[in-house]
């Protein structure tokens, strides 16, 4: 494969506390970009994590870039005593608005006020990256409903909830976005990623907010994260005004029919490449490395195919953020990418 531009490896870091020794090992292994996931954190925590990462990059003397992955509107479960609860198919659960429940068997808390008022009987929703599927069976009020779990698995506290029908109806420009953007000049990220971009109009609003914070020596690349059907449908107008896109497969696979994900990824990368725009393929690239030394064969093929499709970068998430040996993921990704680039 002859390519004029090397394929970047983006590694997600664990930001609180900042694991300097872990991250140094990734720098030594040849990481290209550090990603700070700004979701579910306060503005202060986001700013501190970005500044810590920037200081480390500068002190390393290496040309590692910094990506600020900004938050979106998330529906989440609340807290309960157990970290996870095993559930069985066809069991019905009561969901109630609130921060916590002392017993998830009595009710499961959710932290999105008025959610019941947006639901319909028969709506399907998922927890996490699709660990469990539920079907809404009864709606009692705007803040209380009943749903039946469709498969066996673990219900994890504080996990995200995705309701495909509502994905594009939510306002993903979070209330604190102006505060977060005002902090960015302190760390000067090289790339700023906006989540759940679904239209040119939405992205123009976000870019206008970002431009108010720009300085003569800081003008980051704007990355539009494509995570919903509307974003896929409007990809041409989105590409007209951004520097690049991220195929954010975690949420995207829950928002579109999962069997279409591979074809959508190829379509989005091809469109970005045709316009000489940066493209990132993200989520579950080398997740098997959390449990295995040699990656799953499907992971090897996934990275290979993303490279062959012409992606500018692959992004590693838990395999670097949650691993005790994050450098291994960098080494494996570099080996696979090297074979493709030299083929």
From TrEMBL:
Pathway: Carbohydrate degradation; glycolysis; pyruvate from D-glyceraldehyde 3-phosphate: step 5/5
Catalyzed reactions per annotation: pyruvate + ATP = phosphoenolpyruvate + ADP + H(+)
UniProt GO MF annotations: ATP binding; kinase activity; magnesium ion binding; potassium ion binding; pyruvate kinase activity
Ranges of residues in domain Pyruvate kinase barrel: 7-330
Top enzyme category: transferase
Keywords: ATP-binding, Glycolysis, Kinase, Magnesium, Metal-binding, Nucleotide-binding, Pyruvate, Transferase
Family of the protein in this entry: Belongs to the pyruvate kinase family.
This protein's name: Pyruvate kinase
């Amino acid at each position: 494969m002859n390519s004029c531009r090397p394929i970047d490896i983006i590694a997600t870091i664990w930001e609180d506390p900042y694991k300097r020794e872990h991250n140094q090992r990734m720098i030594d292994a040849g990481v290209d970009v550090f990603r700070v996931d700004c979701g579910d954190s306060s503005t202060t925590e986001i700013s501190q994590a970005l500044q810590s990462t920037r200081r480390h990059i500068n002190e390393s003397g290496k040309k590692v870039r910094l990506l600020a992955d900004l938050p979106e509107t998330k529906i989440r479960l609340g807290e309960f005593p157990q970290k996870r609860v095993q559930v069985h198919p066809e069991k019905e659960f009561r969901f109630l608005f609130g921060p916590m429940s002392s017993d998830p068997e009595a009710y499961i808390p959710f932290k999105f006020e008025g959610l019941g008022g947006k639901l319909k009987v028969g709506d399907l929703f998922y927890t996490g990256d699709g660990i469990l599927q539920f079907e809404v069976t009864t709606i009692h009020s705007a803040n209380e409903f009943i749903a039946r779990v469709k498969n066996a698995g673990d219900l994890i506290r504080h996990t995200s909830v995705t309701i495909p029908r509502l994905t594009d109806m939510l306002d993903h420009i979070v209330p604190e976005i102006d505060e977060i953007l005002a902090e960015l000049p302190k760390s000067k990220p090289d790339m700023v990623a906006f989540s759940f971009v679904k239209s040119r109009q939405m992205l123009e609003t976000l870019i206008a907010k970002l431009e108010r914070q720009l300085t003569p020596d800081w003008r980051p690349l704007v990355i539009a994260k494509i995570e919903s059907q509307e974003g896929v449908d409007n990809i041409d107008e989105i590409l007209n005004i951004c520097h690049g896109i991220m195929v954010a497969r975690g949420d995207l696979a829950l928002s579109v029919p999962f069997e279409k994900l591979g074809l959508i990824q190829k379509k989005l990368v091809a469109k970005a490449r045709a316009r000489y725009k940066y493209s990132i393929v993200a989520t579950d690239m080398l997740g098997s490395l959390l449990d295995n030394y040699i990656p799953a064969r499907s992971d090897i093929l996934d990275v290979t195919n993303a490279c062959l499709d012409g992606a500018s970068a692959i992004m590693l998430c838990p395999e670097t953020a949650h691993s005790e040996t994050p450098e291994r993921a960098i080494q494996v990704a570099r080996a696979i990418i090297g074979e493709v680039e030299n083929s």
